[in-house]
Amino acid sequence: MLTKRIIACLDVDGGRVVKGVQFKNLRDAGDPAELAKAHSESGADEIVLLDISAAHERRATLLETVRRAARQLFIPFTVGGGIRTLEDAAAVFSAGADKISINSAALADPAVITRIAERFGSQAVVVAIDAKRLLGTSHWEAYTHGGRTPAGREATAWAREAESRGAGEILLTSMDCDGTGAGFDCELTGCVADSVRIPVIASGGAGGAQHFVEVFSEGHADAALAASIFHYGFSRITDLKQQLGAQGIPVRWPC
Amino acid sequence: MIAIVDYGAGNLVSVKKALNWLGQDCAITSAPGEVTKAAKIVLPGVGHFASTAALARLGLQDAIVDAIGRGIPFLGICVGMQWMFERSQESPGTCGLGLLNGECERFPAGVKSPHVGWNQLEVDSSSRLLQGVPSSSFVYFTHSYRAPLAESTVACCEYGGRFSAAVERDYLFGVQFHPEKSGAIGLKILGNFCAL
Fold first, then answer.
1. Shortest CB distance from A1 goes to which of B48, B119, B140?
2. Among B34, B90, B168, B180, which one carries the catalytic annotation?
3. Could you give the 3-state DSSP secondary structure of residue B123?
4. Is B2-195 a domain of CATH 3.60.15.10?
5. Which architecture does CATH list for A5-246?
6. Phi-psi bin for A17: left (phi > 0), alpha (psi -120 to 50), beta?
7. What is the pLDDT of residues A8-51, one digit of tens each?
8. Best mutation site among A2, A47, A225 for testing chain B: the one with the most B CBs within 10 Å?
9. Which of A219, B38, B86, B112 would you call most buried, defined as having the most Cβ atoms within 10 angstroms of its Cβ?
10. ipTM field
């Protein structure tokens, strides 16, 4: 049976993981390569590395980080943040990423999705959508530049367009829920997941196992991503997976 | 030396990385001469079935067919496995190698497509490629088309119906999933291939 994926996200700035982490037995808890490996060993189905600095002068640092992390990683590895062109994507792939995630660049020039998909395959192109609810409605607007700039696009319509242009997956972050630990936005996730045929990764708001159960069952998510919960809450993703399994959610366990 | 055949479709770094991790001498190549000299051949493939047309254009298809004829172990991954069949609905104008009978087809409308994520194998225990891989093992898939069940099927997977997840005949092997992305089980499978 196809399982629901649990994805661990590392937010990286200048080659260091910026959210605090509490793994035991790590020499350096801020090193993305060590953390990626630790997450993989503790049951993550996939690793996402988001470069939140994305400043141009730091690209070389990012590529070196990707190379180091990829060397010991034998599960799918997605890299996002600051990828604007086919050339940017190619550099990240040759450093060892399996997929790239694009957000602002895709909204500015949706054709970039097609260019990367034609060269590397749709399975390698994740379109990230940061969505914020339009007050009092069941509509969400897509934002760019780390949630600072409204893009003037309705999130569901944009997800559909991204799919038609060759995206292989949607990484959907609820800006309203992100960082709250109060649960994923199941309504948003369900709206998008039901309107595209490609997998949707829910992100933003994970605070406990029940939130994952909800976003998989009510939100129809194919995968769920979290960062801080894996750093602070569950010391091992296996614990989360056991709880999900006990509640009837198909997960890869034992790994 | 293991030749990882590059025909311009997608990203081959992951496959090379995994083989290097296993201590194997391998090289990414698009030169037919290198393929001819190789002790083993891996044909990765992501993307579109039509991209396999480049194999004939680059002279790689002849080199591969010749090597297979000499009993050189061959492993096709994802589209690389589908290419071993006769054809695919994804690109009706493109011929596969036709070493295995059947046509690759799209997933039925009732399930999400592509099939992305970790799914389970039902393993034929006589398989050499899957030796030591128990049934129900999880491996990572990402594909929109699938190969039919065939006489050579040694592992199948269920997603909108059963399909071939791995095939094997003599020294011809194929896997629909990505062993280079399937954790310890995937490395075990690649290790089995390397040890042939």
1. B119
2. B180
3. strand
4. no
5. Alpha-Beta Barrel (3.20)
6. beta
7. 999 998 888 886 555 566 667 689 999 999 999 989 999 999 99
8. A2
9. A219
10. 0.94
